[in-house]
């Protein structure tokens, strides 16, 4: 760690553009988080990369519920590692959602998929991650571009972006990244939020089984970082705050629409079930970061 702490103040200067884009983040808070969280995290990744003694890219999984700060943390880590001389690429499991046409075909078989949820092109995710990990000079990898706003919020794949440079670190984030099936399904009948009817409980159980299809994706991850929000119901407030500006323009979701939206995703992968299990999983999770209600970082826990 000392070799990175020494460059802390120099690094802070490289975040000027980021801070201008994110005025809600105070420079003194970022400086503290760089020292206490981001720099130690970067050092751990660099040490892991060196220990592999391989030119393969390192895949870093970042799992967090909606609104917890995956994108913000990803931007900071990319700036930091780039400044330290490493190449970085970032993508999301959201990029690997089924196309709108494929989603509609799925709905013909099972109309319960009223939203995207656990509806990803798993084969494409595996191919993208594998190609990025094993990338060689002269090789290009095409990553899908997904627009969540297409088809009035139903979403669709709208194109492709090309990665033409090999990356040392591949950040892959997602709201349900790393979630695994729970064996004891009685937990779905324990009265948790969103699991409020026999139909909703059965849907949650069915999606729980479907998580087995994702194991080949999770197996590609070299380091799993979980941004864990103990008070996960705060995400309803986070979403409401995000929609408030849109409502002022005559757009955005009402509080009831937000609740229905968020609850659908909780029925798919529940923060108090599969995500809590992931945070407690010392086998598959290498780091857990506790997130406060105000998005600040409370503490960082190592599973290694």
Description:
There is one protein chain. With 304 residues, the protein is of the alpha/beta class. The protein has helices at residues 2-5, 8-13, 16-21, 27-52, 70-83, 100-109, 122-133, 150-153, 198-210, 215-218, 234-248, 255-268, 271-280, and strands at 58-64, 88-92, 141-147, 156-163, 169-174, 223-228, 287-291, 297-302. The strands form two sheets. It has a six-stranded mixed sheet with strand order 2-5-1-6-7-8, with helices on both faces. A two-stranded antiparallel ribbon has the order 3-4. A hairpin with a 5-residue loop joins β7 and β8 (297-302). α11 (234-248) crosses α12. The longest helix is centred in the first third of the chain and has 26 residues, at 27-52. The mean pLDDT is 92.
Helical region count?
13
Class derived from helix and strand content: alpha/beta
The multimeric state of the shown protein is: single chain
Mean pLDDT comes to 92
